[in-house]
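Researcher: I need the complex structure. Ligand is L263DTV3. Inputs:
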Amino acid sequence: MASADIPTPRTPEGKEGLAALLARPERAVIALDFDGTLAPIVPDPEQARAHPGVVPALVRLAPRVAAIAVVTGRPAGVAVRYGGFAGVPGLDHLVVLGHYGAERWDAHTGDVRAPGAHPAVTAVRAELPGFLDRNGAWRGTWIEDKGGRAVAVHTRRTEDPDAAFEALRAPLAELAASHGLMVEPGRYVLELRPPGMDKGVALAAYLGETDAASVLYAGDDLGDLAAFAAVTSLRGHGLPGLLVASVATSESPQELIDRSDLTVPGPEGLVALLDALADALE
Ligand SMILES: O=P(O)(O)OC[C@H]1O[C@H](O[C@H]2O[C@H](CO)[C@@H](O)[C@H](O)[C@H]2O)[C@H](O)[C@@H](O)[C@@H]1O
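Model: Output:
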């Protein structure tokens, strides 16, 4: 395969982040969101799978960089399954931080470290079907069980996903608050989960473990803004970073695009970027 050039970041901070990654790859951390970044968006969340180029690109990069982590709102075990990350030779140090960092899977042990079910999530889950009926949920609205630590309400498969999403936004915020939960909004999804953890907290803690001298973070949705903010803050403290927005459709939040240093066209573009980095480092 012909090697492609690494695209040039738009911002001076991004250029600095990329230069640091290329200068000292052995101290660079690559952190990647799952849905919309590694896996193309599909109507049924249970059918989402990593782009076929992801694992080969990560296998090429892994020996050249300090660490690679997937940082996702999915339960860690689900991302491992849908990503095809388990038992891959060369990916024995991959880490998946699931549930926005509340869970962790380490490839070298194959174990998921996870807190147990959250009582408020269990209570909300039991209430949800009746609650959605009473609050004007559109036909096609779908509840995703997320292992007792979160529950997500999806509107992508309704006739008008935007209107269906907006109709539920305020009622679900009230329901979440009444149980001490928060709402994490995403691409046609409103997720109810315990507060106190986000991708920024998770990423900063992980970088602290790895003695990183630079970081690349790629994401596609509102939940990734916390990780973007963490990288921006770390840059202010001298850690160079590159922020990549994966943008395949008009759904992508403008705020994420505005805060990125580089935009790639969805998972396919992200794979091309990872391959270009691997080419440069080989
Ligand atoms: O943090 P992420 O890895 O990006 O996960 C965020 C949510 O992604 C999933 O929903 C999104 O992808 C689905 C499959 O492509 C799509 O149908 C849905 O509309 C998107 O919002 C997942 O289902 C959620 O649990 C994750 O929290």
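Model: Summary of the prediction. The mean pLDDT is 96.
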